[in-house]
Amino acid sequence: MSAVAIMRALLVAHAPLIALVPTARIAAGTIPTGTLPAIGITEISGIEHDTVARAGNSVVTARVQVTVYASSYPQQKAILKAARLGAGVHTGLIAGYAVRSVLRDLVGPDMGDYTIPTFEQSRDFMVTYIEPA
Asked: Quick one: CATH architecture of 2-131?
């Protein structure tokens, strides 16, 4: 949950994204049906790296998926673009964690249920942070 909390903190602090999706609709896990536009944040995988001392805190690198849910294809693309978080690498104290880096990674395919309609697409981030013991 730590990597998800870090990503949510970054997303809700990013003004271009908040202009498109209210902070209450940026949440960990899945989004309730009919809540559009919205963003769901999930941890896909992670690895703990031992420190040299092999004691205490560990460095964790987690793949976090940010999934956009929208009511139209143009809205999906606009929200996904805003969810890039802008240029650069994000480091420092974020959501109470010492973050080493947050890097953009893969962008997933267009998805959704066109009978409702919902338009979905995800973007992955690699989040590296210190996990307290």
From this structure: 2-Layer Sandwich (3.30)
